[in-house]
Design goal:
It is built from two helices and no strands.
Length: 58
């Protein structure tokens, strides 16, 4: 497996755990608040995996 694949799988696992934290924190505002920000942070770190790579051969 390439490093990119391993990194991507790791971030997917973080997303799944963030969703688990969100479900576990129903009824507690501050836990839900922190869980949602954790989920957003994971999504932000995944952005580079979905961006198109620029061609540097110009």
């Amino acid at each position: 497996m390439s490093n990119n694949t391993v990194n991507f799988l790791g971030w997917i696992m973080f997303l799944v755990s963030a969703l688990g934290f969100i479900f576990a924190s129903f009824g507690n505002f501050w836990s839900m608040f922190a869980s949602i920000f954790f989920l957003i942070g994971c999504v932000v770190f995944l952005i580079p995996f979905f961006r198109k790579k620029k061609n540097n051969n110009q």
